[in-house]
Amino acid sequence: MKNLFYLFLAITIISCGGDDDSSGTNESQTFLEKYDSVVWENTGSAGDRAAFINNPKTLAIYYDACFIYSLEGATETPDGDTITISIQEQRENSMSLSIQSTLYPEDNGLFIFTVTSDGNTQTLTRRIDGDIDGVEDVEYIRTNFEVCF
């Protein structure tokens, strides 16, 4: 009888101790994880491109040359500006950034990047500080270019 009890206890422990993998299959990625190094081209200005890099957290922008900005602090630019970026919120298909410029404070504000469910189009919504109308949408499409183009 004692051996039967131990056998029952062992079976119970083994059946309850297994890993349940079902919860890990629905984990979503962050925006930076999902769109790491994907290059987006501005539909209204051919040749203007942008890409987010997850590690290190940076934004690469191309317009006449490639510029790299940290998403977690300040970046000095060749023209003497200091751009400070901080991630405000990050979800699977959207990310919002607070962007501050020392030379161009009229461009300071919240920048929200939202990707469509099919992953092919990204909309940048800019909300400029102190601007009554302050909202501007810019559309980008996914391209096959590589980062820093």
Number of strands: 10
Shape from CA axes? globular
What is the spatial order of strands in the main beta sheet? 4-3-2-1-10-9-8-7-6-5
Helix-residue proportion:
10-25%
**Run of helices and strands:** HHEEEEEEEEEE
Proportion of strand residues: 35-45%
Mean pLDDT: 83
What is the straight-line distance between the termini?
74 Å
Structural class: mainly beta
Radius of gyration, in angstroms, nearest whole number: 23 Å
Low-confidence stretches: 1-25
| Main sheet characteristics | 10 strands, antiparallel
Count every helix, treating DSSP H or I runs of 4 or more residues as helices: 2
Oligomer: single chain
Summarize this structure briefly.
This protein is mainly β and 149 residues long. The protein has helices at residues 2-17, 31-34, and strands spanning 39-42, 49-53, 58-62, 66-70, 72-76, 82-90, 94-101, 109-115, 121-128, 135-142. A ten-stranded antiparallel beta sheet has the order 4-3-2-1-10-9-8-7-6-5.
Describe, in plain words, how this protein is organized in 3D.
It is a single chain. It is globular and about 35 Å long. The protein has helices at residues 2-17, 31-34, and strands at residues 39-42, 49-53, 58-62, 66-70, 72-76, 82-90, 94-101, 109-115, 121-128, 135-142. A 10-stranded antiparallel β-sheet has the order 4-3-2-1-10-9-8-7-6-5. It is built from 2 helices and 10 strands; from the N terminus they run ααββββββββββ. With 149 residues, the chain is mainly beta.
